[in-house]
Fold this protein.
Amino acid sequence: MAVHDTRPFYLNLLKIRLPVPGVVSIFHRVSGVLMFLAIPATAYLLDLSLQGEQGFSRASEILAQPFSQLVLIVLIWSLLHHLFAGIRFLLIDFDIGLDKEQSCKTAWLVFAAEIIAMIIIAAGIYL
Amino acid sequence: MSAPGLQGLRPWIIQRITAVYIAVFMLYFTVALSAVRPFSAESWSEWVAWPGNNIGIGMFIIAVLWHAWVGIRDVVLDYVPNVVSRMLVLTLVATVLVGSGFWGFRGLVLVVIK
């Protein structure tokens, strides 16, 4: 890097205005960290659910609690965003959607896909 | 600071291979659960004990833990500049991942044995 860099240097999060691909990218990271945090509880619930009638109903009870439901909604969003943004990154690895205009389009596409998938999942659960 | 052995092509390719397996398995899991609907204690245990599913879930656990390790390691390398803190955080992350892995595998093995 040049010694005298004249570009503005902001780390004020309130002043940074990320372009859409940047938003997809940071959410990819945030969603990944959220799912990482859920790994121990998920492993515990898998193990519990396989421990006969009692374990299974205990696991169901835990998942039915309002707090768990809220966590599940966040995790489902995390999974969907991570999946669709991940597919987009894989395509970029193969030089697909690399230029600025296309990369903005596919970033919007990621958000559209996850919203549609959330609606389909909600409809599947509540209808 | 550069971190020898933690960067380069190997983690990059691991991240992509595990990502594809995770995506394909989750698609299978969603479709299979919607079709079979193993939503009772007995049918769920049966479904998980079936060899194809048991091995598939086992590989899924390994893929997820490995993927999480590479991803979280990148995040830690970005945000924790101090070498000692970095090692502590990475050790904690590895412990949580390996511990969760053993827990998951315990369930997978016990459901086959019993």
In short: Chain A is about 75% helix and 0% strand.
